[in-house]
Every structure is written in structure tokens, then in C-alpha cells.
Amino acid sequence: MRPQHLTNDYLIRLRYGETLSFAIPSSPTYGIPTKPLDYRVPLPFEGKREPSIKSPFNYRGTMVGINDNRIMPFESKVERNAEIIFQTDPRIARIKPQPLVIKYTAADGKEKKHIVDFLLHKVDGSRALVAAKPTLLLVRTGLVDLLLRLWDQGRLTGIADSLSFVTEKYASDEAAYNASEIIKARRLRNEAEYDIALNILKNVRGPVRFCALLAGAEPPAHRRTALWNLIDEKRLRPVKAGRIEDHSLMTVTL
Known about the structure:
2 domains, Trna Endonuclease, Chain: A, domain 1, Arc Repressor Mutant, subunit A, elongated
């Protein structure tokens, strides 16, 4: 966190009456998962095209999928954010980046090839091809027309049941942050702490700030993880869309 952001966060916490402690705890407080963490060697990437590690133009990197422990590369921030968000969607069973090469006939009659960003295997058995691009690039490159051409030419028959795209509107930094907190909370889930947080929510009436739900928790990190588990289950929701922070207003939906 940048110094100016840290200062801003500190002032906001004071405004909401939080008591801040800078004491160093005597033992780790990161998490106490009920189920021991499983550290496995990630499975190799199995897509058709692996992006280069570095680029002067794009935001690139890799992550490991929580569903299948497989390496997933990305070559833009929209792709990176989408990969994180997809992993928290209960409708999606598996994510395959750069999954296959699709041949099609261009407007000039020439045969060309295209690789869609993602193939999503859903829990209901259906499959969806998804392109992830910034809105400006989506328009500038004519990608929507290309996707429609693939569909109209029947090139996706037997490959996917639907075709769509996501932009920075869906794959925003705020949504990716919330999704990353959910992923972390799933790994660190503690059933005893979860039950405590759930019982607290049963007594809440009306909107409540996230930080108020941490009151009395020692250490707060364990309660925070439990609250994110409840957010994951849609039992606790933000009143407004955006990044969920300590001062965010929440509503209980048990």
C-alpha cells in the first residue's frame, strides 16, 4: 500500500471511531484453518498458446487455479481480474485459458485462426467461450464481429454452448480484490470462527459497517476470514457495489 493510501485509510478508521493498535502480536495471526493447507506442485499449463512472461505493452503473469491446481497465465489486467473472479463463481467448475485454436473464414475469403481467451466448464455441464478485453480494444480490433463470425459459421459447434466477452466493467480491480479475499478466506476457513461470526449476524438489524463486526475479536484476522466466508456464501452483502473495506456498509441476508 502506498504511503498516501495508508494515511488515508488511517484517517478513515479514526473518523469511524476505531481503536487502532500497533502492538506486534506474540504469535502469528494470519489464519488458523480447520483443514490444513495443502501445498502441491502446480500442474502445467495446458492451453494452446502460452503468452511470453514480459511485455512492454501488457500486464502479464501467472496464477494457480484453486479448482484444479493448474497454472493459468494472463496477458492483460482484464484477463488477470477475470481469472480471479471466475474462480469464485459457484457456477464455474473449471477455467481453461487459451484453450483451443479455432479456424474461420475471414471477410476476404481467407482461412484464419483465432484463440479465445477462456473456455469455462460450468457445473451444469455446459461450456462457454469467453473473450476478455478492455472495451476500447474490443471495439478497435473488431473482436465482437469476429466472435459473431465464429458463431455464425458454426465453428463452435461441439466446442461451446455459448459465446460472450467481459471487459473492465465486469473484471474491475474492485471486483478482483473482493474475489481474491474470498479465495483467501476459503483456504483459511475455520469452522469455529465461522460459527461465531454467523451467530453475530443473526443479531444484526439493518445496515452495519464491516469493522463493527470485528468488535471484540482477538485477533481480528480470524473474524475477518469468517466474515469473508459469509460474503462468499451471500449471507453478508455490501450495500453498495465496489471494493469491500472495513468502513463499508454491509447488510445481512440470512
